[in-house]
Amino acid sequence: MEKRKWLWKRKSSERSPGESESSGSFSSHSERYSDEQDAMRESPNDNNTQSPEFTPKATISDDEVKESVKCLTEKLSAALVNVSAKEDLVKQHAKVAEEAVAGWEKAENEVAALKQQLEVALQQNLNLEVRTSHLDGALKECVRQLRQARDEQEKRICDAILEKSSKWESTKAEFEKQVLELKAQVAAAKEENTLSVEPNTLVIIETLEKQNSSLKQQLVSRCNELEIMTIERDLSTKAAETASKQQLESIKKVAKLEAECRRLQSVARKSSPVYKQKSPLYAESLTDSHSECSDSWASALIAELDQFKNEKPGSKNLTVEIDMMDDFLEMERLAALPEAKSNTQVAECESASAESVCMDSTLKVEFESMIQRVAELEKKLESIEAEKLELEKSLDESQRSIKEAESGMHEAGIKLVELQKELNAVNEAKELLESQLIGMEVESRTLSSSVESFKAEIEKERTISAELRVKCQELENELTRKIQEAEVRENEAKELLESQLIGMEVESRTMSANIDSLKSELEKERTLSAELRIKCQELENELTRTIQETELHANANGELKLKQEDLAVAADKLAECQKTIASLGKQLQSLATLEDFLIDTSNIPGFSRGPLASGDIRKCESDPSRLSRENGSNEESPVDHVTSAKSRNGFGRFFSRSKSVVELGHHQD
Q1: 280-330 pLDDT, tens per residue?
Q2: CB 87 within 8 A of CB 395
Q3: 618 and 662 part of one domain
């Protein structure tokens, strides 16, 4: 019996803490009554063993007391058995109700979880659709940007080529014009060269070097722009690749979600028949339960709960039934042991009845003790009956609770039907989602094919960009070669212009000195010619007067001789005047040729505003003091004159044009 108690305690310890606490009081109570029942079974047997000694002297009341004790013990055992059975039934019904409520709550939780998962799946599908739309837009935008960048790059390259070619042609034409003008100036000017080098040439060289450095910087900036454009194109290709990868990942996630939904659907389909199969098994196990196996029944219930959770009904149910059969066999064996012991004791007492006459007093004492025990048992019976009434009340309450639980189970069944309908609706929604997922897979395949086509276009654009790079490199090489040729031509033209400028400056200085001397002589000749004109006028007047006088006084010979002498003197003076007039005419002709030369030099860029302009000569003829002032100012600032002359020649125009070209290049960049 102690072994059995230990087994029951071990099984009860294997249960959950809540169930052990709730069933602990009932198990201890049942154990206490079972011990009392065993003691009561042993006590009548002892009485039977000792009855032969007492039979000769005992009365009929002893037999009646024994029979009443037996009846009471049987009633007590039956009452205990009924109470324990009812307790077990109450426990089982309470556990069934709790399990039903737990299953209902679990089903509700599972349905809520499935709803949440479906909502999450729908949200993920919507997010994936939005993402695919964004990816489509991004891919289209990338393709558009790539095409636009390619078109812009081609336009820029063509425009740059056209601009550079036009600029080089214009600069070439300007250089050719300047060379022709310089050749004409060199042919017209005298061939006198000096080796004096002025500081302005160094300034010109520095400006040319600055222009060369600026052109190199422009080439470097163009190279950097080309590199940046290639980097941007590579980045766009990388963005397209990452977009395709993200799309593949989204497809994988959708496939995983679809597999998860299928798994949950299969779990939901499996859980409903398993629960239906377990309910009749539960009813059979409840009808086959007994009073001494409450703990084993609790363990069986726990095992069945584990079985319900783990979805393995067959093998574990068989093991539980085998354990229950072992428990019943063990209890029958333990109940059979006291009967065998009592039979052996009766035989021994009959053999020793003749010798135990002297033990009447002891039997009387024992009888009194038995009477006291019977009284105690009656008290216990009363207490048991009171407890029985309480148990009946609790049983009624438990039956009410069971009815309420049954009504709750009915409601739970209704709710399960509703949940099944909702599950069917969810399955339909899931099928719709699967069809949508299939459509999305088709769309993703089309998108992947479009991405592959985009990749092919990107590869084509890469080849085109490589060809454009080669062309740009060739153009850069041609530009460097043309720049070098232009630099060589510029240096040659610069040297020629410097030599021509030096010679022309020397010639201009000598010619300005000659012009000053000629102007002074011309002033003198003009004064002389004016005096001679006055004298000629006077002589003509005198001649006319003398002729008139000779006509009037032809008769006076002496006067005629004097007049003839005067006429001879006047003729000599007239001849001298004519000579001086002829010399002045020659000088005026030479001045006219000089004036034509100065007009020709004024057409040259360096002498358009020089000191020998034809307008200045005319002004000098009318105002000699202005000529002296201008000569003084020119002698005081020769450097300013040279710089102004150089700024007015072809170099100034070339530098201004080159700067404008550089600025245009910067604006285009």
Answers
A1: 444 444 444 444 444 444 444 445 445 444 444 444 444 444 555 555 555
A2: no
A3: yes
Mean pLDDT of the chain: 65
Instruction: Return d(Cα 311, Cα 333) in angstroms, integer.
Output: 36
Distance from chain centroid for Cα 230 = 21
Token pair 């069809």: residue: 435
Q: Are residues 501 and 424 in the same domain?
A: no
pLDDT of residue 648 exceeding 60? no
Same domain, 392 and 502: no
Within this chain, do residues 422 and 324 fall inside the same structural domain, yes or no?
yes
CA separation for the pair 589, 592 (Å, rounded) = 5
Number of alpha carbons in the 13 Å side-chain half-sphere of residue 75: 14
Model confidence band, residue 599 (pLDDT cutoffs 50, 70, 90): low
Whether residue 612 contacts residue 601, with contact meaning beta carbons closer than 8 Å, is answered with: yes
**DSSP SS3 for 57:** coil
- pLDDT at residue 626 in the model: 46
In which residue are the tokens 């042991």 written? 337
Cβ contact 497:182 at 8 Å:
yes
Report the C-alpha gap between 376 and 40 in whole angstroms.
12
pLDDT digit string, tens, across residues 81-102? 888 888 888 888 788 878 878 8
Does the pLDDT of residue 591 top 70, yes or no? no
51 inside domain: yes
DSSP state of 610: S
| Cα(242)–Cα(451) distance, integer angstroms | 11
- Taking residue 305's Cβ as centre, other Cβ atoms within 10 Å add up to 16
Is 530 a member of any domain?
A: yes
Alpha helices (H) along 553-623: 557-603, 614-622
Same domain, yes or no: 485 and 529: yes
End of a domain among 401, 423, 442? Answer: 442
What is the distance between the alpha carbons of residues 272 and 219, in angstroms, rounded to a whole number? Answer: 80
Check: CB of residue 207 under 8 Å from CB of residue 655.
yes
Residue 563 and residue 525 share a domain: yes
Give the rounded distance of the alpha carbon of 177 from its chain centre: 60
* pLDDT tens sequence across 567-577: 777 777 777 77
In a shared domain, residues 384 and 488 = no
d(CA 191, CA 502) in angstroms, rounded, equals: 11
Indicate the number of domains in the chain: 2
Domain of 475 in residue numbering reads as: 167-211+471-668
Q: Please answer whether residues 377 and 80 qualify as being in contact, where contact means their C-beta atoms are separated by less than 8 angstroms.
A: no
* Residue 262: inside a domain: no
Do residues 547 and 419 both lie within one domain?
no
Tens of pLDDT, residue by residue over 114-148, are 888 888 878 887 888 887 778 777 777 877 887 88
**Per-residue model confidence (pLDDT) at position 351:** 53
Q: What is the mean pLDDT of residues 3-22?
A: 43
Question: What's the rounded Cα separation, in Å, for the pair 502 and 515?
Answer: 20
What local confidence, expressed as pLDDT, does residue 18 receive? Answer: 41
Q: Which of these ranges, 258-262, 562-566, 596-600, 626-630, has the smallest mean pLDDT?
A: 626-630
Contact status, residue 146 vs residue 236, Cβ threshold 8 Å:
yes
Domain final residue, candidates 402, 424, 442: 442
> Is the pLDDT confidence value at 165 over 70?
yes
Asked if residue 664 is part of any domain, the answer here is yes
State the Cα–Cα distance between residues 446 and 440, nearest whole angstrom: 10
Query: What is the C-alpha separation between 653 and 173, in angstroms, rounded?
Result: 13
pLDDT tier for residue 256 given thresholds of 50, 70 and 90? confident
CA–CA separation, 86 and 281 (whole Å)? 20
